[in-house]
């Protein structure tokens, strides 16, 4: 009706409209597609979106952010909240007994050693017990890793009695003064009653404080059934999500978390024992949504820079199509927006990165260096040979060394952007830590 049209027009003029099912529809469709392509179980995706939608309707639209962007941001926050619910750390109790369960090939044995290594680094005296008696190679695998990481180890290659093996392993560990005892168990290709029965008996024998499901991060729609079966039978206390170093978006995490409510505690990001991290919900949420934190950037920027500029910048970051000219423009925006650190905090995967204290001073020098370059050089840094670098250093009143450093830094950043574009945030974080 005309009244509606008028009201609508007035609303958009004032920029104070509310979120409605209509203006949210496109964004929700996109988010739903993102969740499904991240392998989130379809019922989980549906319920999650319905919940968020209900919470969104009626909320005032923020100034200079489109309803769509606002919805993605709200969904992201909701996702972080849901993924991060519960205790994401292991119980502090000592001695601590941890049962590692999961399907065959999910990464139980590897994660057992990884967890042992991590706890040892924190000052614990971990001990691993190999309870996978069906494949001698599995016991060897654990023993080799235990030796490598200097963890206590026990297994028995002869017995067929898993609960007895567990009990003896526990006694051996305690006799050796271990304070964290990790039980690596057998898996099956699929969930089956034999497997569950055996783990139940082992549980009764060693009375673990933590029962951790180790799940392949690339598990698809079946993640829900796997998690439910283990949780119903054993009462899980935590989850380790493995193989997040690949292309997987980790939707299994959301499926499992939604269905069981069990907190995610660690993630595996590679085959080596060091490739293991505590769980950060923000990182996983942006990985699952695949939309980075672009909206936060836009939102943060809204009062100081125009939205189109912020979107252009975010888009360039996403596409890894970023030259020194953009770098300069961005720095000048950043000065208006607040500290570099807070901007880094909004970029996917960069929230943990600390900038040195003199970052602002450094920024001024960087600015001077880029300003001493020709536009052509800024757009194509590969042009910067020795002569040009010398000229730039003179122009900016800095040493050539600083020019070289800046270019190197920029190249590293470009590399990071490329990785980010590929969605490979784990690899990126490792790169940054070096
Ligand atoms: P289990 O059968 O559950 O004990 O699984 P394993 O620990 O033997 O792991 C199965 C395979 O997955 C091995 O080749 C591991 O190296 C590999 N793996 C385990 N965790 C990870 C991970 O986080 N990333 C990658 N890329 N590979 C992993
Ligand atoms: Mg194993």
Automatic annotation (TrEMBL):
This protein's source sits in the domain of life called: Bacteria
Report the principal subcellular site.
cytoplasm
Q: Where is the SRP54-type proteins GTP-binding domain?
A: 263-276
BP-aspect Gene Ontology terms: SRP-dependent cotranslational protein targeting to membrane
| GO CC entries | signal recognition particle
Q: Which reaction does it catalyse?
A: GTP + H2O = GDP + phosphate + H(+)
EC number, as in UniProt: 3.6.5.4
Assembly description: Part of the signal recognition particle protein translocation system, which is composed of SRP and FtsY.
Q: What free text does the record give on domains? A: Composed of three domains: the N-terminal N domain, which is responsible for interactions with the ribosome, the central G domain, which binds GTP, and the C-terminal M domain, which binds the RNA and the signal sequence of the RNC.
Protein name, entry field: Signal recognition particle protein
Q: Please report the organism this UniProt entry assigns to the protein.
A: Lacunisphaera limnophila
